[in-house]
Every structure is written in C-alpha cells, then in structure tokens.
Amino acid sequence: MQRTLPRTIRTLLGAGCAAQCLLPAWAGAIPWQFQLRNTEGQPLADAVVAVEIKGPARSSNGRAEMAQRDRQFQPHVLVVQAGTAVHFPNFDTVRHHVYSFSPIKAFDIKLYSGTPSEPIVFDKPGIAALGCNIHDRMGAFIVVVETPVFGKTNARGELSLDLPPGEHALKLWHPSRLQPLLLSQKLNIPTGQASGVSSLVLPPQ
User: Fold this and answer.
1) What pLDDT is stored for residue 110 in this prediction?
2) Considering the domain 7-55+151-202 in this protein, what is its CATH number?
3) CATH topology of domain 63-145
4) Closest C-alpha to 182, from 79, 76, 99, 83
5) What are the tens digits of pLDDT across the range 173-189?
6) Range from 20-24, 85-89, 96-100 carrying the lowest mean pLDDT
C-alpha cells in the first residue's frame, strides 16, 4: 500500500538548481523547488521527482543511456518516460552481462562489449533494478514514469522544475526505499505565485 508522505510547503523567493528532465513549456509556469530529506533530516541525492500534469499524456519515442564505466553503471539512477528506448553502452575493457528480473521489464544482455545493436524499450511505469552477472558489486535502477515532467535531486537533495498552476499528482522514489513503488501525493501550485518550495520527507520503507 502506498503511504501519504508528510510534507510542509512554504513560499520562498529564488529558484534552486536545475536537473535534467523533459519539460514542456506552459504559459504562466512557476519556478518550483523540491527539497527531499529522510526522516533524520539528511538530504536525499538521486531522489526521483515526477509531476503528472492534468491533461492528455504525451507518449515518448525518446532514447536514453545506461552506460558501464569503471565497472559501474552510470548513472546509478536513470529516470525515463514510459516508451523510452534505453541503450547500454559498455565503455570498459572487460565484458559485462547486464540483466534485470524486475516485473516491469525483465531482460538479459549476455556478455558483450561496445553497444548492443538493439536498445531495451521500457514501456511500463515502475522501477527496474539492474545487475551484472559478472560483477556482483554493480547495481543501478531505471525508474519509468508516465509523465514527461521529471528530474532527480542533486547532492543537496534539491530539484527545480517550472510547473503550471493547478493540482497535480506527485510521484517520488529514492534508492534507499527497497520497495519498487513510486510514492504518490497531491501537489497544489497556487495561481499568481512567483515561486515556491515543497519540503518533503521520505520514510525509509
């Protein structure tokens, strides 16, 4: 069962740092900063924030990469919209065997170097945990969302997005949560506000 997250929302001037995201333009969009922390007050880096804006959903024909460098997946957390084709280039001098047993996308790319000719298309929302059958310490996550509006927090646990006024659905996740579920809550952006901040606390499980 998904839990309702505790939160406080307060209005501040200024915008925080931006993160890579697919962001459509809206008239009257408001700079909105998200600050994510754990129950001990520590900032959560690489936390996923996805905002589902009311209206027709856009399909994705995009592409993304989950690379392997220095016997590590890069990035550790990749966020994509459902329908995105993900490539798995191997930049190491050793071969990797990438796999996932996750319900949203089970796959197995056997020992290879370079870049496989066919990407993996992630068409269902949720979290896919990745591993390497040769190097046990390698691990990563691909988080698939249903909206083109998303991003990841920086080392300070912050992310800024430009959002239209209205009531939206907010989806959150962090690797510290072992459950492969995005947490849901409502996000209300007031009309006529210059900017704003949502301070969010993610429970550990």
Assistant:
1) 95
2) 2.60.40.1120
3) Immunoglobulin-like (2.60.40)
4) 79
5) 999 987 778 999 999 99
6) 20-24
